[in-house]
């Protein structure tokens, strides 16, 4: 019972805030323009500031663990490639291939990863390293996969170049790198600036969760139920099952496993829909995967936390 209560306390506050966002949207208090602006505000302002303030307060030895960093990078790369290869072999409707592959792997490690680790441990813990290792690969592979399998005329090097440039300008990664710079040099802002940054950092998680919840459209959940449920199984069960098992065998524990769970086993990111639509892929399937994984992840993530807690790994 103690482990179950720990798991519920670790996950349900996050999902309840998301539910509040959905209810506020349902009753007309929040609108789609709010969701768009809130997501942009969180991506460009509050989340980079949160990660900067967390990392700048660490020592360098705390901020960088090479083994964990390269495991996150390797798990991301291998997981995406494996899903891609299997999808090419087994998915019969090639028009949905790009959307299906992206839906199977692409989560929200920056937003949700930080939220879960901070809710459980009171700080960002291992999540910044996980973000640096996984987010660039998530974005680069998304461009490759959606370009190759979309209706936009096949692969174009210019789009890959644009993706790489976007990674270099990613505000979340820039916030992490700035935090590492301050951590290494020992630079400090005046108290006035630190308190101001702290107010913005405190807004990050609740604003992000409300926006995610408000963006859920239940009517799109089962437009294509079979590939949607298969993608949800891969995203929420298979992917974390394989790489969390291996991570435990390699000795990772605590906030590292929670960060890995956030990287591998949370809902498909809403930004996947925007990319799928703009790059002429199956946006209907993508929307369904986002909705179903968001709904089911409240159960599966609680289950993963309960299992890891019962095993004494977190």
Automatic annotation (TrEMBL):
GO terms for cellular component: plasma membrane. The keyword Transmembrane helix applies. It is a multi-pass membrane protein. One of its GO terms (biological process) is transmembrane transport. Keywords: Cell membrane, Membrane, Transmembrane, Transmembrane helix, Transport. It comes from the Bacteria. Coiled coil: none annotated. It is found in: Cell membrane. Its main location: membrane. The chain crosses the membrane at residues 6-24, 67-91, 128-150, 171-190, 196-216, 228-251, 257-276, 288-307. Belongs to the auxin efflux carrier (TC 2.A.69) family. PANTHER family: AUXIN EFFLUX CARRIER FAMILY PROTEIN (PTHR36838). This is AEC family transporter. It comes from Candidatus Caccousia stercoris.
């Amino acid at each position: 019972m103690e482990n179950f209560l720990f798991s519920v306390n670790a996950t349900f506050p996050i999902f309840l805030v998301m539910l509040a966002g959905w209810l506020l949207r349902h009753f007309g208090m929040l609108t789609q323009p709010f969701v768009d602006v809130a997501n942009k505000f969180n991506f460009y302002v509050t989340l980079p500031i949160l990660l900067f303030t967390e990392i700048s307060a660490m020592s360098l030895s705390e901020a960088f663990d090479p083994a964990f960093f390269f495991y996150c990078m390797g798990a991301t790369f291998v997981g995406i490639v494996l899903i891609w290869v299997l999808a090419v072999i087994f998915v019969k409707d090639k028009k949905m291939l790009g959307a299906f592959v992206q839906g199977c792997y692409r989560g929200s490690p920056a937003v949700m990863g930080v939220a879960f680790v901070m809710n459980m441990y009171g700080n960002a813990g291992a999540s910044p390293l996980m973000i640096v290792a996984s987010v660039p690969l998530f974005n680069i592979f998304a461009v490759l996969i959606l370009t190759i399998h979309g209706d936009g005329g096949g692969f174009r090097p210019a789009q890959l170049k644009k993706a790489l440039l976007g990674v270099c300008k990613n505000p979340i990664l820039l916030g992490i790198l700035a935090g590492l710079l301050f951590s290494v040099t020992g630079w400090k802002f005046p108290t006035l600036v630190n308190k101001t940054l702290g107010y913005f950092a405190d807004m990050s998680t609740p604003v992000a969760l409300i926006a995610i919840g408000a963006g859920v459209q239940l009517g799109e959940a089962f437009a294509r139920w079979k590939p949607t449920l298969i993608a949800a199984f891969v995203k929420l069960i298979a992917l974390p099952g394989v790489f969390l098992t291996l991570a435990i065998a390699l000795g990772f524990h605590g906030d590292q496993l929670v960060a890995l769970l956030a990287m591998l086993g949370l809902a498909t990111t809403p930004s996947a829909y925007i990319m799928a639509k703009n790059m002429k892929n199956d946006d209907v399937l993508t929307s369904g995967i986002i909705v179903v994984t968001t709904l089911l992840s409240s159960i599966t993530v609680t289950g993963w936390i309960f299992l890891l807690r019962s095993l004494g790994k977190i």
